[in-house]
Specification:
There is one protein chain. It is built from 15 helices and nine strands. The chain is α+β, with helices and mostly antiparallel strands. The protein has a four-stranded mixed beta sheet with strand order 1-2-7-4. It has a three-stranded antiparallel beta sheet with strand order 3-9-8. Strands 5-6 form a two-stranded antiparallel sheet. It is globular and about 70 Å long. It starts with a helix and ends with a strand.
Length: 430
C-alpha cells in the first residue's frame, strides 16, 4: 500500500469515527429499533410498498415509540392512540412541524399548507379555515352544492345501464367539483378535458408520492403572494379530492362485498328518507348508515402513516430523547386497527360504531383525520360529502360485482390506501 492510499484510508477511518461518535452523542437514549445495516439501514427488513404494516409488526417488539433507519436517516414511529395523542396534542409544539420532502420542496417551495412550517403555516391554516367557513363549509350553501353534485353523479351512473364500469374517474371528478365550485365558482362536466387533466395530475402525484423511491398588512405582503396561494389551492385539490373519493370507492366496493350490509343501509334510507333527496339533517336519524360510513373510513385506512411530522426542537418524550429535526411517523394505522378499541380490527364490522341500543357510538380512537394542530382542515366538509354522496348513491342503486369478479380488499400501492382497480354494476332501484 503506497503512502497516499494509506493516508486516504486513515482519513476515511477518522471521518467515519467522527461521524459515529457525533451520532452516538446525538442519539443517546434514542428510541429502540432494529439494528441497521451500514449505509442502507433497515431497508431490507421492510416492505417499503406497505411500510405501515412493517411498522405495526415492529411495534410488537420495540413498543409504541421506536426508531428505524432508512439509508442514513433515522425516524421515529409512534403507535397506538394514547402515544399519538400524547405527542400531537400534549406535546403539540414539539411535534407539529413538517419535514422538508424533496418532491414538495421542488414543486411548491414549501409554500401552501400541508408541508409548510412556522408562521407561514399558521397564516395559511387560519386563512384556509376562515375561507372555507366563508364559502359555506358546514352550512346549507355548500350542502346544496354537494346535493346537486350527488344528483349529477347518479345520472352519470345511470348512463351505464347496469353494465360494468370503472368508477374512479367519475367519483374523482364529482368530488373535485365541490372544491372547484368553492374556489372558482364553476363546476365541470365529467368528460370536460380541463377537469380530466386536473384529476389525472392529482392521481399521478399521489401515485408518485407512494413510490418506495420517494423519500395584518405585513401578513398580506409576506404570505399572500402567488406562489403561496397557488400551492394552497393545489393542497386543497389534492387533500379535498383524493381522500374523500378514495373513501367513497372503498364504500362501494365494500357494499358489493357485503350485500347484507348494503341491504340494511337500503332499509334505513327507505325508512327515514324515502324518495326525498338526502340531506345532512337526516344523518342523526340514521345511526346504521352513519356507522357504516365510519367503518368504511376505519377499514379503508386511507392515510395509514399520516403525513410525516418533524420535531421542532430537542424533546424528551416517554422517557426517550428525540433530537430536533427528527422525522416522526404517527402511525394512524395502528390506531384504527387497535384491538383495545375495535373488537374485530381487521374485519369490516359496522357494529364497532353501534351501542347495544343501535345508536351511534363515539370511539375516541377513531381519528382518520388525525388529531392536534395538523389535523385535516377539511374534516367538516369531507364528512358532509361522504354522507350525502354515499346515501344518495345507495338510495338510487343496488351495487353488484360483475359476474365472476373477485373482490380484492387489499389496497393498491400509493401514498394513500386506495382500493385496487375494480369494476362495478350500478343497478337502479326505481
Amino acid at each position: 500500500m503506497d503512502l497516499i492510499t494509506l493516508l486516504l484510508a486513515l482519513a476515511v477511518i477518522l471521518y467515519l469515527g467522527f461521524v459515529f461518535n457525533k451520532n452516538k452523542a446525538r442519539y443517546s437514549n434514542f428510541p429502540p429499533g432494529p439494528t441497521p445495516l451500514p449505509i442502507i439501514g433497515n431497508v431490507l427488513s421492510m416492505d417499503l410498498s406497505k411500510p405501515h404494516r412493517a411498522f405495526l409488526e415492529l411495534s410488537k417488539t420495540y413498543g409504541t415509540v421506536f426508531s428505524v433507519q432508512i439509508g442514513f436517516g433515522k425516524l421515529v414511529v409512534l403507535c397506538g392512540y394514547e402515544t399519538i395523542k400524547d405527542a400531537l396534542v400534549n406535546h403539540a409544539d414539539e411535534f407539529s412541524d413538517r419535514p422538508k420532502i424533496e418532491l414538495f420542496s421542488t414543486t411548491t417551495k414549501d409554500h401552501g399548507l400541508i408541508f409548510a412550517n412556522g408562521e407561514n403555516w399558521k397564516v395559511m391554516r387560519r386563512f384556509t379555515l376562515s375561507t372555507l367557513r366563508d364559502y359555506g363549509m358546514g352550512k346549507k350553501g355548500i350542502e346544496h352544492k354537494i346535493m346537486d353534485e350527488a344528483s349529477s353523479l347518479v345520472q352519470a351512473f345511470k348512463t351505464f345501464q347496469g353494465k360494468p364500469f370503472d368508477n374512479v374517474k367519475i367519483i374523482n371528478t364529482a368530488v373535485a367539483n365541490i372544491i372547484v365550485s368553492t374556489v372558482i365558482g364553476v363546476r365541470f362536466d365529467y368528460d370536460d378535458p380541463t377537469i380530466t387533466k386536473l384529476v389525472s395530475l392529482i392521481n399521478e402525484n399521489i401515485r408518485l408520492l407512494g413510490s418506495p423511491l420517494v423519500r395584518g398588512k405585513s401578513e398580506h405582503t409576506q404570505y399572500f403572494h402567488d406562489e403561496n396561494l397557488i400551492a394552497l389551492v393545489e393542497n386543497l385539490f389534492t387533500a379535498g379530492m383524493e381522500t374523500t373519493s378514495t373513501t367513497l370507492r372503498w364504500g362501494l366496493l365494500l357494499m358489493m362485498k357485503y350485500p347484507e350490509t348494503q341491504r340494511k343501509v337500503h332499509d334505513e334510507i327507505e325508512a327515514v328518507i324515502g324518495s326525498a333527496q338526502p340531506q345532512i339533517e337526516h344523518r342523526k336519524q340514521m345511526p346504521y348508515t352513519d356507522a357504516v360510513i365510519h367503518e368504511i373510513q376505519r377499514f379503508g385506512d386511507i392515510v395509514p402513516g399520516s403525513a410525516p411530522h418533524v420535531t421542532s426542537r430537542d424533546v424528551t418524550f416517554r422517557g426517550y430523547s428525540i433530537p430536533k429535526d427528527t422525522v416522526i411517523i404517527p402511525l394512524l394505522h395502528s390506531v384504527l386497527r387497535d384491538k383495545a378499541y375495535f373488537e374485530k380490527p381487521n374485519e369490516f364490522y359496522p357494529e364497532h360504531f353501534l351501542d347495544s341500543e343501535g345508536k351511534l357510538r363515539k370511539i375516541e380512537a377513531f381519528i382518520p383525520f388525525s388529531i392536534g394542530k395538523r389535523s385535516c382542515a377539511g374534516e367538516t366538509l369531507a364528512l358532509m360529502e361522504l354522507f350525502l354522496f354515499f346515501t344518495t348513491l345507495l338510495q338510487n342503486f343496488n351495487f353488484q360485482a360483475p359476474p365472476g369478479a373477485i373482490l380484492d380488499l387489499s389496497p393498491a400501492m400509493a401514498s394513500t390506501n386506495g382500493p385496487k382497480q375494480y369494476e362495478i354494476r350500478a343497478i337502479p332501484r326505481n
